[in-house]
Design brief:
Blueprint lengths: L10 E8 L4 E8 L5 E7 L6 E3 L5 E3 L2 H11 L7 H17 L4 E3 H15 L1 H11 L5 H13 L1
Helix pairs in contact: 1-2, 1-4, 2-3, 3-4, 4-5
Length: 149
């Protein structure tokens, strides 16, 4: 960090404080001119983008996952805490991939993976919308897959 007064790159840190917003405040003193200045350090979040089936890109929105889960879990013994936890796990898994862009299919597959263990009826409801079921045979096929595992 260069001194804002004289441009020197030699400074010493006098004080460091962490703030609530994941920011670190550092009070520094220039070794050449002796003036003091403050710097702020923060983690830059990369915004996750989702490529939709039609090719459009949009920002990742965990609330869309929560709304889909709420519909699938309606009148099921699944709490809102469980819905939020599942959505959080999906988000975390996506972030751990280290990519800036994911497909909507990757998101749907992760939701189904976790929902299957949480509530099988909600899983089937979610799958029927996600996989665009059109025939009763689609349900039968999914039920056979669920039984196998």
């Amino acid at each position: 960090m260069k001194c804002p007064y004289c441009g020197s790159e030699e400074s010493k840190t006098l004080e460091t404080r962490d703030s609530l917003e994941n920011t670190t405040r550092r009070r520094k003193e220039c070794m050449r001119c002796g003036k003091r200045f403050t710097t702020y350090e923060y983690v830059e979040n990369v915004e996750l983008m989702v490529q939709k089936k039609d090719g459009k890109l949009e920002r990742f929105d965990v609330n869309k996952i929560i709304r889909g889960l709420q519909k699938a879990c309606e009148k099921r013994p699944v709490s809102m805490d469980q819905v939020h936890e599942l959505a959080g796990r999906v988000r975390q898994d996506l972030m751990l991939k280290g990519k800036e862009e994911v497909t909507s299919q990757e998101i749907g597959d992760l939701v189904m993976k976790y929902l299957k263990d949480l509530d099988r009826i909600a899983y089937i409801r979610f799958a029927s919308v996600y996989k665009k079921f059109e025939e009763p045979e689609d349900f039968r096929q999914l039920l056979l897959e669920v039984k196998k595992k």
